[in-house]
Structures are given as C-alpha cells and as structure tokens.
Specification:
By secondary structure, the chain is α/β, with parallel strands linked by helices. Helix content is 34%, strand content 17%. The chain has 5 helices and 6 strands. The protein has a 6-stranded mixed beta sheet, with helices on one face. Strand 5, helix 5 and strand 6 form a beta-alpha-beta unit. The protein is globular.
C-alpha cells in the first residue's frame, strides 16, 4: 500500500514482471489523499511545538497529528476489503514519500507488525522537532512481532519547519 495523492478513489493495480519473474505478482493499492494530507500522515505532536516564526504548530496545522487514525483505516478497513476481493499473499509493504514517508517511519517505529516492509522516501523527519530521529533508534531496537524491513531515502532539501 502506498500513501500518495490522486484525484480519484483508491487505485488497484496488478503488477508483475513477465520476462524476468524476479518480481512476484502483486497488487499495488494507491490511496488518494486530496482532503488533508497533514491530518492523515503526521504523527501526534507536542501541542507546544513552535515553528520558525514563533507560532505554535497546532496553529499552523490545526488538523495535524492523526496518523494513527489513518493507520487504523489502512489496516482495519482497506486491507480487509482488498483481501476479501482479491487473491492476496500475507505480505504487506507500506511506501510513502515526504509526509507519507514520515507516516511509514511512524508506523515502523510504533506499530511495526502492521506491515512486513517499509519504504520511506525523503520522509519529513523534521516533524515535531525531529522527534522521530531521536526516538527511532530505541524503537527499532525493540523486538517486533514480525521482522520488518525498512528503506529510507533522504534528500538534503532545506525545510521551512527546520529550526535553525
């Protein structure tokens, strides 16, 4: 399952490498989010967190911090819907970019059993004063119920949320 933007409903794609057979047949589910990406993809944060101009993050992004609600949608509603309608394997991969990458890293560090593998592309790890950067090493050291694999690719683009 991937976190991304689309103008239509969830998209379901069957992907397979027919020539090499190195990539197993899979179903790719793209979840559109045209309503409020910040609400759905950002983890809870400190209500006293401030941005560069001194305003509280909760003032700048009043709906933020509901990643756990979105995770429940993915795991308790969407995944069962897909599994009931398609022939699936018991292997789920969560892919996200930017806020979606932050979401993937949040799920990996807080509910690693939710997916089998994680790909976080340029995750917004600066969120909430880079709390994820501080807490991830301890969280990743804890034994998970299932082994999780993670890949995180980060670009060095300055962010207006970064404290100087």
């Amino acid at each position: 399952m991937g976190c991304g933007a689309s103008s239509s409903g969830p998209s379901f794609t069957r992907a397979r490498s027919s020539r090499t057979r190195h990539i197993p047949e899979m179903i790719v589910v793209g979840v559109p989010n045209t309503t409020d990406r910040t609400r759905d993809l950002t983890p809870p944060f400190s209500r006293t967190e401030r941005v560069d101009d001194g305003r509280r993050l909760s003032e700048v992004s009043p709906t933020a911090g509901h990643a756990d609600t979105f995770l429940r949608f993915l795991t308790e509603e969407l995944a069962p819907h897909v599994e009931a309608r398609y022939r699936t394997q018991p292997y789920r991969i969560l892919v996200g970019h930017s806020h979606g990458g932050l979401f993937a890293m949040h799920v990996l560090t807080h509910k690693p059993e939710s997916f089998n593998a994680y790909v976080a592309l340029s995750p917004s790890v600066h969120w909430n004063s880079a709390e994820l950067v501080r807490t991830a090493p301890e969280a990743l050291a804890r034994p998970a119920r299932r082994a999780a694999h993670a890949l995180s690719l980060r670009t060095r683009i300055p962010s207006p949320w970064m404290r100087r």
